[in-house]
């Protein structure tokens, strides 16, 4: 009897006291949604965090009559390391800073030029931040980027995270960046972002029109040599980079209409694949890049009837040309202007020529800049939508 | 006979898997990948061969002395005093290995989950629970293991399958990049883990069908290797060889990366939960071997009085580890030669050769 009583008491105690050690209630933590790091003139770094205000995330306040409550709070502090800056932040943030839900890591332009490795280290080493944080480089300062507002999402960090997740542009998660930083056969390329003017929210009173809002947006790609930023690719070249890397086969290709070259036809890409085939004879380095792409015609400005096999053939070859042009634009910039292999040609070379790689790996970027790259594109158009030709055009 | 219980072949297989696997998938991948890069999977295959040979050696030895454990037949083979010395060394090794296992788990929990909890709490709690199981004997330990290990293995496999989305087979190329020596170096650590099957010598006497011992040992080794192989492949195919070698617990990071449709994510809690079960089972088996061995070495009639003192020694030994760097360095450099050459191959081989030379024991079945 006594034994049972003791057992019951222990059972009760485990139920009541379990998990109380270092517990954290939602109201005791400051959840970081976005982190920004800027390089300061005096050699210190400025850590900016966008912290969620959980009250604004409840369903009630969204529809409530009080209007939209700001969903985030942005604070900064400086320090020599991320941790030191975080401790200074803690002097202003009345809760425990929690990194587990951090969605984005934004590096200011100057910071990226000084080196990303010393920043990403903390985010890989600490147990709270996750490997799949989206990493990006902003033109200007990370602080300005995080201090923006989002009309559609709750906070700008989430907006930036969703932009990345949509894979509209080139996007990179921390663990992919770590792989690019660690490999000699590829140099890192990171999403470039900027603060853009993005639409307005109409008010009931049309006279009281709100000024255009500054919101986050994608701006191409930041090119790195080792862990230092050395340049940018614009959105057009970014598409080329994506094709050469064989990632995110999305987007639209605009080609001239075969019969009326001043009018355009849009082809939406459905899927594609890229193969990089290195060839090396000990001296001469050559790469064959084979891109396959499939798309649907979705828009036609011209009046001609494109629903004919031979017209589709012409469109396909124009599509291939256009794609090749994009890829070449990215390639030329990487080879001639920056002299870095951001496509992973080195990794492809390593896979095929492991012995030769040992000699070349330490001067790979020079070898890559000199290499000849042949891009061959095979394009196919599958569907043409629901129309055969432009509607509302009289038969000729 | 100190142990009254009997276990069947299936329980024995599961017990041996628990004996090796839980810490193997935690710390071995990073060490192996550091040596052999993307060829780590070949290292595992090499280690499996070695593991099978050790399993064969150990089973051969044990089956010559039916119903007897390592501690009993060591004396029979070598004579009383040398046998006692060998026995003492084995007791030491079981304790040392067990302390390292607890250090691995405590470090993992501390660095990845519960930084505020002092390591000693993990040691004491882990040992206290394991002590209960050990006190109740081999059968209880086996049944516990039989209950939870399939869960452990199943959930782990599910998580690995979910991770396939982020894997790229090309990360395994080129094959044989670093050469045969690197692959062999990479194989040493997993081989020393698979060699822990030496503890099977403490279990064989309690098999209800000792004739199946070979099959049990081989199946268990193959199964363990399979999981080890899969976890290494998963880590390499997700992170590539460079980053895999940078992480301390690459399999854990690989599980963290899994994100299906943005809602099926953060599955590391499942992985950690199953790892805890596994870790407890592993500690339990080593603990049991140490306690039973000590009792036989001292010639006691019952091993139960030894459970508590051995537990205290274990906690104290585990607490000797100063930091995780020391632990990882020991596991990567000192452990393979120390465990593999002395306790897993050296001594069993010497025992077998002497037994054959002196004609001790019956013919191996």
Automatic annotation (TrEMBL), chain A:
Name used for this protein in its record: Spore germination protein KC
Q: Where is the Spore germination GerAC-like C-terminal domain?
A: 220-385
Family, per entry: Belongs to the GerABKC lipoprotein family.
Signal peptide bounds: none
Q: What Gene3D superfamilies has UniProt attached to this entry?
A: Nutrient germinant receptor protein C, domain 1, Nutrient germinant receptor protein C, domain 3
Q: Which GO terms describe its biological process?
A: spore germination
Q: Name one GO cellular component term.
A: membrane
Record field: transmembrane: none
Q: Which domain of life is it from?
A: Bacteria
Q: Note the topology in the membrane.
A: Lipid-anchor
Q: Where in the cell is it found?
A: Membrane
Species of origin = Desulfofundulus thermosubterraneus DSM 16057
* Boundaries of every Spore germination protein N-terminal domain copy: 23-194
Coiled-coil positions:
none
Keyword annotations from UniProtKB, A to Z: Germination, Lipoprotein, Membrane, Palmitate, Signal
From TrEMBL, chain B:
Please name the Gene3D superfamilies in this protein's record.
Amino acid/polyamine transporter I (1.20.1740.10)
Give the way it sits in the membrane.
Multi-pass membrane protein
GO terms for biological process, alphabetical: spore germination
Taxonomically, the superkingdom here is Bacteria
> Would you tell me the Gene Ontology cellular component terms?
membrane
Q: Which key words tag this protein in UniProt? A: Germination, Membrane, Transmembrane, Transmembrane helix, Transport
Compartments it resides in: Membrane
Q: What is its main location?
A: membrane
Chain segments annotated as transmembrane? 12-34, 40-58, 78-97, 117-134, 146-163, 183-204, 216-239, 272-294, 306-325, 337-357
In terms of Pfam families, this protein maps to:
Spore_permease
Q: Which InterPro entries match?
A: Spore_GerAB
Protein family membership: Belongs to the amino acid-polyamine-organocation (APC) superfamily. Spore germination protein (SGP) (TC 2.A.3.9) family.
What the entry lists under NCBIfam families is as follows: 2A0309
Specify the protein name: Spore germination protein KB
- Please name the source species: Desulfofundulus thermosubterraneus DSM 16057
């Amino acid at each position: 009897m006594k034994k049972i009583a003791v057992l019951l008491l222990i059972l009760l105690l485990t139920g009541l006291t379990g998990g109380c050690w270092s517990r954290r209630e939602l109201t005791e933590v400051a959840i970081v949604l976005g982190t920004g790091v800027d390089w300061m003139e005096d050699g210190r770094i400025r850590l900016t965090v966008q912290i969620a205000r959980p009250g604004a995330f409840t369903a009630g306040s969204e529809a409530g009559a009080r209007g939209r409550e700001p969903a985030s709070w942005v604070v900064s502090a400086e320090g020599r390391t991320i941790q030191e800056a975080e401790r200074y932040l803690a002097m202003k943030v009345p809760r425990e800073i929690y990194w587990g839900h951090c969605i984005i890591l934004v590096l200011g332009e100057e910071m990226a030029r000084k080196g990303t490795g010393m920043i990403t280290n903390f985010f890989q080493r600490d147990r709270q931040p996750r490997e799949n944080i989206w990493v990006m480089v902003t033109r200007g300062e990370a602080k300005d980027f995080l201090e923006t507002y989002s009309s559609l999402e709750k906070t700008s960090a989430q907006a930036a995270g969703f932009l990345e997740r949509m894979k509209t542009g080139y996007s990179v998660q921390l663990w992919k960046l770590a792989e690019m930083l660690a490999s000699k056969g590829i140099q890192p390329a990171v999403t470039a972002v900027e603060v853009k003017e993005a639409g307005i929210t109409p008010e009931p009173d049309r006279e009281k029109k709100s000024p255009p809002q500054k919101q986050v947006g994608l701006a191409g790609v930041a090119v790195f040599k080792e862990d230092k930023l050395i340049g940018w690719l614009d959105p057009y070249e970014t598409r080329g980079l994506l094709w050469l890397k064989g990632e995110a086969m999305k987007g639209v290709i605009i080609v001239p209409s075969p019969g009326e070259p001043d009018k355009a036809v849009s082809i939406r890409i459905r899927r594609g694949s890229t193969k990089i085939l290195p060839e090396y004879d000990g001296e001469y380095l050559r790469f064959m890049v084979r891109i396959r792409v499939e798309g649907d015609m979705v828009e036609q400005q011209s009046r001609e009837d494109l629903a004919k096999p031979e017209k589709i053939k012409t469109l396909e070859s124009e599509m291939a040309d256009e794609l090749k042009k994009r890829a070449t634009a990215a390639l030329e910039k990487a080879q001639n202007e920056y002299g870095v292999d951001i496509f992973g040609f080195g990794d492809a070379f390593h896979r095929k020529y492991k012995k030769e790689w040992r000699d070349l790996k330490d001067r790979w970027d020079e070898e890559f800049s000199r290499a000849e790259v042949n891009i061959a594109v095979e394009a196919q158009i599958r569907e043409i939508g629901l129309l055969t030709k432009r509607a509302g055009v009289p038969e000729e | 006979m100190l142990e009254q219980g009997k276990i069947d072949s299936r329980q024995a297989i599961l017990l041996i898997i628990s004996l090796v696997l839980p810490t193997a998938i935690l710390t071995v991948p990073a060490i192996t990948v550091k040596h052999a890069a993307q060829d780590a999977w070949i290292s595992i295959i090499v280690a499996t061969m070695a593991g099978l040979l050790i399993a064969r050696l150990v089973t051969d030895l044990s089956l010559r002395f039916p119903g007897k454990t390592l501690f009993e037949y060591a004396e029979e083979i070598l004579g009383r005093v040398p046998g006692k010395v060998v026995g003492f060394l084995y007791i030491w090794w079981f304790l040392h290995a067990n302390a390292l296992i607890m250090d691995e788990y405590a470090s993992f929990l501390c660095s990845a989950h519960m930084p505020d909890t002092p390591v000693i709490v993990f040691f004491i709690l882990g040992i206290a629970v394991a002590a209960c199981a050990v006190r109740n004997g081999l059968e209880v330990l086996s049944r516990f293991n039989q209950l939870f290990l399939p869960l452990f293995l199943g959930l782990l496999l599910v998580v690995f399958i979910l991770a396939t989305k982020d894997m790229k087979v090309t990360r395994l190329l080129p094959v044989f990049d670093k050469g045969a020596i690197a692959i062999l170096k990479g194989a040493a650590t997993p081989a020393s883990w698979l060699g822990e099957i030496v503890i099977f010598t403490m279990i064989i006497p309690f098999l209800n069908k000792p004739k199946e011992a070979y099959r049990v040992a081989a199946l268990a080794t193959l199964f363990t290797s399979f999981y080890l192989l899969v976890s290494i492949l998963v880590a390499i195919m997700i992170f590539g060889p460079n980053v895999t070698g940078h992480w301390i617990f690459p399999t854990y990071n690989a599980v963290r990366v899994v994100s299906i449709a943005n809602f099926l994510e953060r599955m590391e809690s499942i992985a950690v939960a199953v790892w805890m079960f596994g870790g407890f089972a592993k500690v339990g088996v080593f603990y049991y071997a140490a306690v039973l061995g000590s009792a036989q070495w001292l010639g006691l009639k019952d091993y139960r009085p030894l459970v508590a003192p051995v537990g205290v020694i274990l906690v104290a030994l585990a607490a000797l580890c100063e930091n995780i760097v020391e632990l990882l360095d020991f596991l990567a450099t000192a452990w393979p030669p120390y465990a593999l050459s002395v306790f897993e191959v050296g001594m069993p081989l010497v025992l077998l050769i002497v037994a054959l030379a002196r004609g001790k024991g019956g013919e191996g079945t």
